[in-house]
Design a protein that fits this description.
Layout lengths: L1 E6 L2 E5 L5 E5 L11 E3 L4 H5 L21 E5 L2 H11 L3 H9 L8 H6 L13 H11 L9 E2 L39 E2 L4 H11 L8
This protein binds iron/sulfur cluster.
């Protein structure tokens, strides 16, 4: 089967019957008989739920997608649904970005609008932000999204501990190489709820900001 595009840890392969098959990209070259077969796009929800060790994956763009499956799809509708379940709202965000209409929110604004038990997150210091984002969002072990938001309205880089490639949608966050034209980068336009929850833990002294 021929590769058509990559998105996160998934590779889309063109099947002989004109359809498409999704696999973990590490499984691209494995014989089909070695992989658990699926043909319902909605199976993507279960495939995305746990990692190889059976641990729940709270962050769908974390680099811990389970291996050993193949998902055959026979139309664009099924492909879109499956990718939405693997990587929620990422195809849409990429399309909006390509049209030049993606809005991003600085971290300080995301934290400043928190209420209730998360209001305390506004107290995060710049030093803590630098260390925390560098630890939590890093592509090797944290998250495969390319970060588009800034720390504040002045345009401060979210973390000096992340390489420039972390902010580049042309970079494959899995390998560090340049993506091909049809590949779809996972982009992050605003700090996610998991990062906000981690900010709270850091501000409250429950966890160190960095490593
Ligand atoms: S804030 Fe964005 S880059 Fe960081 S972990 Fe959350 S989704 Fe990933």
């Amino acid at each position: 089967m021929k590769e058509t595009f990559l998105i996160g840890q998934i590779i889309a392969l063109a099947s002989a019957d004109g359809g498409c098959e999704l696999r973990h990209r590490d499984d691209a070259g494995r014989p089909a008989r070695e992989l658990e077969p699926h043909a319902d796009p909605e199976d993507a929800a279960a495939l995305a739920l746990y990692d190889d060790a059976g641990n729940y994956r709270p962050l769908k763009t974390a680099p811990n997608l389970r291996h050993g499956w193949r998902l055959a799809l026979d139309g664009q509708e099924g492909l879109r649904l499956a990718l939405e379940l693997f990587y929620p709202a990422r195809l849409g965000a990429w399309r909006v970005y390509q049209r030049g209409r993606l809005d991003t929110t600085p971290l300080r604004e995301t934290l400043g609008r928190q209420t209730g038990m998360y209001r305390v997150t506004a107290k995060l210091t710049d030093e803590q932000a630098d260390a925390l984002v560098g630890r939590f969002c890093r592509s090797d072990g944290g998250c495969l999204r390319a970060i588009f938001w800034r720390r504040d309205r002045a345009g401060t880089v979210p973390s000096t501990r992340l390489p420039p490639e972390k902010f580049d949608p042309a970079c494959d966050q899995t390998t560090g190489k340049t993506l091909a034209e049809d590949d779809v980068p996972l982009i992050c336009q605003e700090a996610c709820n998991l990062l906000v929850a981690e900010v709270r833990a850091v501000v409250k002294g429950e966890r160190p900001a960095g490593e």
